[in-house]
Give the backbone structure.
Amino acid sequence: MRDVSLLTSLLIPLVTYIQAHRAPHIMFVIVDDLGMDDLGFQSHQVYTPTITSLKETGILLGRYYTMPVCSPTRTSILSGYYPMRYGLQHQVIWSGAPAGLPLNYSTVANHLADLGYVCHAIGKWHAGFYSFNHTPTFRGFSSYLGYYGGGEDYFTHQEGAGSESPGVKLSSGYDFRFDKEPFCGNGCSEVLLTANGSYSTNLFAA
């Protein structure tokens, strides 16, 4: 059976464009649990002027297949492979689970770095963090600001409180990180306690 990679289909036209033109700036936005009627350019119920502006001046990926939950979707977009290829198709990655995008899979950030890009990530990761090797700055990103797990309180940055999953022991705690450089692990990765009390969106946009 022929394996057609999403990442390949995205990168071939991108590489061709970069080779023929000056490399463009790229901002890739992934939003979890977003309904079709939750963006201003598709609905008059919600006002999202910045997102609408990005859509009008950028490229909207409007026809594709995705998974119904976050970890499989995120790891698929990062790697370019369907999540059943590496065993993450069934559920999200719970915070206490030894799971993540396998280390033998390169990410789109790795490939863009090969083209001369410097990649940074902000916001939710949720692609595995049970070792530093699974975290963003070990997966091609030069820096990272955000939370490793699947969700947080936007002000206290507590993750996992009140979450339930049958048969899964969940951990909870403060989850807001600043990884300032590539391969930012022990002694480098900072739990950003000064963010406590500050709204996540304001921290990401600062």
Notes: The helical segments are 6-20, 49-57, 70-79, 108-114, 200-205. The radius of gyration is 18 Å.
